[in-house]
Amino acid sequence: MTTKTPRQFFRPLAIGAPEPFRELPLRLERMIHFVPPHLEKVRAKVGDLAPTVDIVLGNLEDAIPVEAKQAARDGFIAMGQAVDFGKTGLWTRVNALNSPWFLDDITAIMGQIGGKLDVVMVPKVEGPWDIHYVDQLLAQFEAKYCLPKPILIHAILETAEGVKNVETIATASPRMHGMSLGPADLAASRAMKTTRVGGGHPEYKVIADPTSDGAPRAVAQQDLWHYTLAKMVDACAAAGIKPFYGPFGDFADEAACEAQFRNAFLLGCAGAWTLHPSQIAIAKRVFSPDPAEVAFAKRILEAMPDGSGAVMIDGKMQDDATWKQAKIIVDLARQVAARDPQLAAHYGM
Ligand SMILES: CC(=O)SCCNC(=O)CCNC(=O)[C@H](O)C(C)(C)COP(=O)(O)OP(=O)(O)OC[C@H]1O[C@@H](n2cnc3c(N)ncnc32)[C@H](O)[C@@H]1OP(=O)(O)O
Ligand SMILES: O=CC(=O)O
Ligand SMILES: [Mg+2]
């Protein structure tokens, strides 16, 4: 595939548009909280909700009824204008590029709250061509409305073709913020035989060989999403952008939601989507590092002030590589501590 030269890659795509970021802004993004903005009752509480989450996202795509598409767009704009989001990110998930609503979504939002918007989440991204189109369009709106900072793009990985092209999507533009796994649409795209929004399936398992005594055979459920999540994490990490787990639809099963989120956290994800207020505490718990892990990581950094050599701590060998792992945990804890005084106390920061 033909790619731009490095200098061209970082050039604004419209005269008067701001320079693309060379590095992503450093932001704590443990949960992307989805708000249905066509519902006045929910919108009215966004001012109280905003300080309790890292990102508020106004959802315009799936889950918004066709007859409420316009109300959702208008509601998101009204909410964006009315609320002071402070340090909380303001995102929107626009309708898909092939839908009758995308162009009006982006035109209205950029014209009215482009200056407050941080990230546009683009669903059903199939390849870099989708990112290039949105990239150019955003640059034109940024120029038209003299916006001082670039708006970032977050892609949802939720089609088989998108998964095939994940690496070229991740590197399509300096505007790329990150990517979320969309297990519901991806399941449909792959013709998986499930009816769930994320999580495991009891029938996706391996079974031990039969034994001569006929004892019950051990069975272990496998993770349906491991392959895709790992592929996405590598593509994002290599491109210097952020991977996220997406939605977990069974609100009543908090333990399964927590397990899904924790697998994503351990594998390298920065956060996950929260679809219901009950999932906010789960995401906060999972995507803020464990205080005991932070304490151990601090001991590694203290034992190896310049990050080199080898030392033993509690019988375990530490070297440059564990120092780097420890630094990731301590840096994240610092970000969390700056936002959450209670966790700051637990971390001793
Ligand atoms: C596969 C995908 O694309 S996933 C992404 C798309 N899906 C979404 O965005 C769904 C977002 N969530 C929602 O729309 C709602 O949670 C629903 C419609 C699924 C369920 O809503 P309800 O039936 O009202 O749930 P429930 O009765 O448990 O809600 C409890 C309270 O939380 C509020 N609430 C529910 N979800 C949210 C939310 N996402 N954000 C803020 N408040 C919410 C309700 O309004 C209700 O408030 P009240 O006590 O003042 O009446
Ligand atoms: O949009 C999310 C999904 O899982 O589909
Ligand atoms: Mg989807």
* Helix content bin: 40-55%
Q: Could you state the order of secondary-structure elements as H and E? A: HEHHEHEHEHEHHEHEEHEHEHHEEHH
As residue ranges, the low-confidence spans are none
Question: How does the major sheet shape up?
Answer: 8 strands, parallel
Which strand order spans the largest sheet, edge to edge or round the barrel?
9-6-5-4-3-2-1-10
Judged by helices, strands and strand pairing, the structural class is alpha/beta
Q: Are any ligands bound, and if so which?
A: acetyl coenzyme *A, ligand LL5AMS7Z, magnesium ion
Task: Please tell me what the overall shape is.
Answer: globular
**What is the tally of helical segments?**
15
Beta content comes to 5-15%
Termini Cα gap? 47 Å
Family: Belongs to the HpcH/HpaI aldolase family.
Protein name: HpcH/HpaI aldolase/citrate lyase family protein
Cofactor: Mg(2+)
Organism: Bosea massiliensis
